[in-house]
Amino acid sequence: MSGHDHAHGPVAGSPGRGDGHGHSHGSVSASGRFTVPLAITFGLTAAFFVVELVVGLASGSLALIADAGHMATDVVALGASLVATRVAARPDGSGRWTYGRYRAEVFAAGLTVLLMLGVGVIVVWEAIDRTSGGGSGDGGVHVTPLPMVVVGLIGLAVNAVGLIMLRAGAKESLNLRGAYLEVLGDAAGSVGVLLAAALIAITGSSVWDLVAAIVIGVFVLYRAIGLGRSVLRVLGQQTPEGLKPEQVAGDLHAVRGVQQVHDLHLWELTSGMTVATAHLVTAPGVDAHVVLDAARDVLADRYGIAHATLQVEPSDHTACGELGW
By C-alpha distance, which of 84, 63, 77, 79 is closest to 223? Predict the structure, then answer.
């Protein structure tokens, strides 16, 4: 992530106020660098969704239909992620988006969570309904394993390509992490379909199709809850994972010339873009520019914080009281 820094404030020993601000602005979100892999994954997933849905309806396999439903959420979620990366990268000509449009990626991940929850509930409900509706315990639907094997293998290949495409970006972006988890869930679904087909062929009972559908649905719900927590953490402006405010404050306090640190705030604008603000109280005669540069370097080098706003206050400056939040 590239950036630039600027600071302003009086030199040491000058009269009046001794405050200043140090800024570092990230220019490109993490997911913006992975637009092409995301687009390829979207295209492959959309094509396979059509195939799986048609075969699932023709064969009567609830496991295939469940996995196709999961694929449908992938198509929408990947499409939303792709749009979000483009929106986040658009320059702001109005001057109203002072932090840029990066939060669009977080909202896309939130949409993914809602879709995953919906699909998971529907699939589990339908499987239970079929189980209770048939005297044999398989819903009275006979499922042929061969179509499940063919579609499962194709799906696994498509998912493998998607996982390879999105793996690197998933480590940096919540938006891409949501897309990656969707594809990972599809891969697990394809494995479930293959296992169900094998068990149906061995036992002759279609109940394994319903079991696979329930497992797929529960797995989708489990992943949706985990991703949802990450989305809420960002939207709730909680301290990013791996950062401890008291440790950051301690390192800033250790900067030469700093007597006190207060009003420290740490949050994520979007994945990979941590924002920080803090007030630094300095000893008399300290050069504010030197303090700003040193504090900026601490945040950037030790914590990877590329956008920090720092206000330097001399120890005899009493007008700035601590905020109440």
Answer: 77
In 3D, which of 137, 25, 35 has the Cα closest to residue 87? 35
Residue 41 tokens read as 């994954």
* Angle ∠(157,119,223) on CA atoms, nearest 5: 70
Interstrand relation of 5-8 and 21-24 (parallel, antiparallel or unpaired): antiparallel
DSSP 33: G
Instruction: Report residue 58's pLDDT band, with 50, 70 and 90 as the boundaries.
Output: confident
Quickly count: other Cβ atoms within 10 Å of residue 204's Cβ: 10
CB neighbourhood size of 146 (10 A): 11
Whether pLDDT at 298 is above 90: yes
Contact 309, 7 (CB under 8 A): no
pLDDT tens digits, 75-130: 877 787 778 777 767 776 777 777 777 787 788 778 888 888 888 888 888 888 87
Distance between CA atoms of residues 111 and 105, nearest Å: 10
* Residue 31: DSSP 8-state: G
Q: What are the structural domains of the chain? A: 5-27+239-314 (3.30.70.1350), 31-235 (1.20.1510.10)
Pairing of strands 307-314, 273-282: parallel
List pLDDT tens digits, range 199-245.
988 988 888 888 888 888 888 888 889 888 888 888 888 888 888 99
Phi, psi of 98 (to 5 degrees): -65, -20
Say if residue 147's pLDDT is above 70: yes
Is pTM beyond 0.85? Reply is no
**Could you give the count of Cα atoms lying within 13 Å of 72 in the half-sphere of its Cβ?**
18
Tell me the sheet residues that pair with 24: 5
